[in-house]
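Supplementary Methods, section 5.1.

A reviewer requested that the exact input to the structure prediction be made available. We therefore reproduce it here, unchanged from the version used in the analyses.
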Amino acid sequence: MKKRLVSLDMTKGIGIIIIMLMHCLSSPILRTVMIYAVGSFMFIFFFITGYNYKPGKRSIGQSIRQRAKQIVIPFYLYSAVIIAASAVIFIAMGERAPQDILYDTIKYYCGITTHNMEIFLGPLWFLPVMFLSSVVFFFIADFSLGSTKRMVPIILALTSVSALTIGYTAAVPWKLPLVPVCTAVMLAGAYAGQKQFFANPPFKDTKLVLSVLGSVALYIVLTVIFGNTRLISRGILGRYGGWSVFTAFVIALVQIYAFVFGCELMSKSKTLAKIFSWFGVHSLQILATHLALAYYISRITGWPYGTRTFPGGMGSVKMDLQNFALCLVMIGLIVCWLLAWDKVKDSLSK
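The structure derived from this sequence is encoded token-by-token as follows.
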């Protein structure tokens, strides 16, 4: 029986905080630093999903239905609420006609994201890709996990499919070219979970610290050499075209080792463990709502966020300070509504 690992929840928590920061930054320098620091960080969520897989617990159909409840329903629920709230703002301000909003909404639910949807629904691309990757994963996981000789060629085949199609990500609905490589990362996670890799660290104490530092150094070297610093949501994983998919896969594994065991070391502080684990447990809700909240706060305060042009030619210091203020306000609002929602759920369950 696998037990829930605090380090995995902490990894997701730190990851979602980094993603929120990156979506709010305007400074080109800070964004570049964050992109290099994060790399293909979203792969970590696929890896952890695979790690937590329990072979034989459910049938393929049951697993797909369970994942639909976890991902598909929240996708439509959150997107519908956010679109409705944003439509009210657009129409009230006279910025867009109702028929244009309806047209963009239809395109969005067909897997095509327009700019007007991207500004507050951008991160939700992750949920359809996670669901589709999970469906593929459920069909091949038990067979693949049965033998390492099967696992390796299947991972190579999946990664090769993405390598051949990755350039079409922006043009294909639901970012389908990402699905095979994300499935491959899930399989790698499932293999690690089968071996209980993170529950039984290969090193202890000082050696574990040194191995984490070594993996961070290796990550930096590989990232500088291969340039896998672009978000996988863009379909561009490095400077070597489709070949970058293979190097991104390897770099992601190095990054995962550093993050998870780094969190294992940090978990000795109960305060840090509690804070980051809480964010990790609520990562889906935060992912779905944080950019919309940033957009609404920006409209109210006049503080631009992300790559939006800063008015008045403000200096970079003031710009970055307002970006961090925006992010702090956004995080505060998210924490408040999630704490309130947890209390509501507890009351309903009782």
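Residues 308-315 have pLDDT under 50 and may be disordered. These observations are discussed further in the main text.
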